[in-house]
Amino acid sequence: xxxxxxxxxxxxxxxxVLTDIDFTLEPGSFHFLTGPSGSGKTSLMxxxxxxxxxxxxxxxxxxxxxxxxxxxKLATLRQRIGVVFQDFRLLNHLSAFDNVALPxxxxxxxxxxxxxxxDELLEWVGLGxxxxxxxxxxxxxxxxxxxxARAVIARPKLLLADEPTxxxxxxxxxxxxNLFDQLNRMGTTIVIATHNQKIMDEFGHSRLVLDxxxxxxxxxxxxxxxKIEGVF
Length: 232
Known about the structure:
The chain is of the alpha/beta class.
């Protein structure tokens, strides 16, 4: 699904913010991306959703080398990726319903199918009664749930989420994590950037840990404990 080989990234003539990043994410895998503030998580997510090309090294996604890919082909590839941004990036002139429906309309889905799917998902994230509300009149947590619903509505092959539970209470946060888990079980590869230790411990997926622009992969603690106890 994703392969980074000796990838480095710098902005302008400044120092590298990512250095010699090497990892492979298999199709259908689920990973948390974590690390201290300023470690390069947002920059790495930007590379993964094809918002920027690396300064050096090789990035392969969906079996394709993206380094020299033309802009129109990158745009086509992005249609297979769902993204939840920290700043949500909702269209403020569209209702919650129309924001969530946008990926399906771009894909040319029938309006009846769109209505049924969007209504069901908005109910699931607790926004059924707010589907006709504009984003600017919603709370930050409500806007975040709209952004998440928009990212997952088309069942993307790859879902990238930057602190998707950051503005939510524990109940809603864990409910949305269960939604991500369900999507993962249907085959979507998921990467979630988070500082939430409680969620990482509870859901027990492997971790991509960034520190000062370098990366290592850690197995989840509960998986390690089970291996020690002879469960595997």
